[in-house]
Amino acid sequence: MDFDLSNDQLDVQKLCREFADAEIAPHAEEWDAKAEFPLDVVKKMGSLGLLGLPFPERYGGAGADTVSYALAVMEIGRADASVGVTMAAHVSLGASPLFMFGSEEQKQRFLVPLAQGQRLWAFGLTEAQAGSDAGATKTTADLKNGSWTVNGTKCFITNAGTPITAGVTITAVTGRGENGRTEISNIIVPQDTPGYSRAKPYKKMGWRASDTRELLFQNAQVPEDHLLGPRGKGFRQFLDTLDGGRISIGALSVGLAQACYDAAARYAKERHQFGQAIAKFQAVQFQLVDMAVEIDLARTAVLKAAWLKDKGRDFAQAAAIAKLYSGELSRRCANAAVQIHGGYGFMDEYPVSRYWRDCKINEIGEGTNEVQRMVIARQLGF
Ligand SMILES: Cc1cc2nc3c(=O)[nH]c(=O)nc-3n(C[C@H](O)[C@H](O)[C@H](O)COP(=O)(O)OP(=O)(O)OC[C@H]3O[C@@H](n4cnc5c(N)ncnc54)[C@H](O)[C@@H]3O)c2cc1C
Fold first, then answer.
1. Distance from the CA of 287 to the center of ligand 1, in angstroms?
2. Alpha-carbon dihedral sign for residues 39, 42, 44, 47
3. pLDDT, tens digit, for every residue of 196-206?
4. 364 lines ligand 1 (CB under 6 A)
5. Which residue minimizes the CA distance to atom 30 of ligand 1?
6. Nearest CA owner, ligand 1 atom 27
């Protein structure tokens, strides 16, 4: 086994670490407080190629592998989980389905500007009554006279309403199969589609600088050729999309956990009680050691899932394991980091209070902890 990163992977990691330290971390607190989408920094990430990292150069991407992409999300997420999820949702949920299932014409038209980092794209799966049970989607798309008429509402959709969002791919019921089961397909909906609108951004506990909205489709008219992949394959397509997305949420969780450790270790050396730095107390050391041990394991699990994907091997179980473990770990690390900061950790002026608010969604988004356990149980043959 070879645990060394290649020179290309190390270069991506270094670029992202330096960019995140210089351009993201110093502003994260302000963006969070104002719930402000950091448009300028996202555009800069686009210019650096970070928004198209794992896509081939012929589609405007940087041609990097999934391991590099995971390392990049870890570094960006370490500085700011909101910016990290903006990148992760754009690449793994927005652009990836277009790359995986789009026709050549759709890739040229929709994927290229995304991979070049000029525009963002969203993925609209969740509905008010279809969350973990995403196949229960109620949004409909009826084909008539060369156009899909879309009706329904999607909720909690990331990147759907930023000033540079170019559109969303949604799941919709396009008919019924012979067995009476609903036929689900994916439809590409450009931002300026008549009848498609976005609500105001949600007010959120964490990821406050990311864009999350409800989407409304009222007789929205979408051309017939905006069907993504074969009709009726939408269910399988979104499961495949979520497998890849779990690697990126795992990476985001590792980045946040690392930020928690860094802040807690720094503070433990500075803060004195009973005449010495609190880092001298074994009870504090043990919390830091547990964080470091688990972060190491989680990073390895995420990179293993990314490596399997790069090798073209089945990575669904590895991605679910990585996402589940890293998500839970990020919550444990955020909790420990606040504990080590004592009362100061409860104050907004210390970043660990933001980390504590940001970590929870890692156990919910892209499949809750319970859903990950269901996926892993299925993989184990139960
Ligand atoms: C900030 C944010 C960003 C998001 N971005 C996107 C996005 O870009 N695109 C998108 O499509 N969605 C997005 N989502 C939606 C997200 O994926 C869902 O919230 C998530 O899948 C859970 O669905 P739900 O909220 O309806 O919870 P529910 O499915 O109602 O779950 C509620 C609880 O019940 C449990 N539960 C449900 N079913 C079972 C079961 N069978 N066995 C055991 N326990 C069960 C769950 O684990 C959970 O604890 C986002 C959500 C948030 C909060």
1. 30
2. negative
3. 999 999 999 99
4. yes
5. 131
6. 131
Structure confidence by residue, pLDDT tens digits, 306-359:
999 999 999 999 999 999 999 999 999 999 999 999 999 999 999 999 999 999
Query: Which protein residue's CA is at the shortest distance from atom 7 of ligand 1?
Result: 157
- Predicted TM-score (pTM) above 0.85: yes
Handedness of CA 98, 246, 356, 259 (dihedral sign): negative
Judged by DSSP in three states, 381 sits in coil
Ligand 1 pocket, 157 CB below 6 A?
Answer: yes
Taking 70 as the pLDDT cut, the residues of the chain under it are none
Decide: 244 and 89 in contact? Cβ < 8 Å. Answer: no
Tokens describing residue 375: 């996926």
Q: Is the CB of 124 under 6 A from ligand 1?
A: yes
From the CB of 212, is ligand 1 less than 6 Å away?
Answer: yes
State phi, psi for 143 to the nearest 5 degrees. -90, 120
Task: Provide the pairing of β-strand 196-198 with 147-158.
Answer: unpaired
Ligand 1 atom with the smallest distance to the CA of 367 is 21
Taking the centre of ligand 1 as the mean of its atom positions, its distance from the CA of residue 183, in whole angstroms, is: 22
Work out the percent of the chain whose per-residue pLDDT is above 70: 100
- Catalytic residue set: 366
Distance CA 274, CA 164 (A): 53
**Ligand 1 centroid, distance to 126 Cα (angstroms):** 8
Q: How many CB atoms lie within 10 A of CB 188?
A: 23
Q: How far apart are CA 125 and CA 169, in angstroms?
A: 8
Element (H, E) at 353: helix 351-359
Q: Name residue, tokens 């995140």.
A: 20
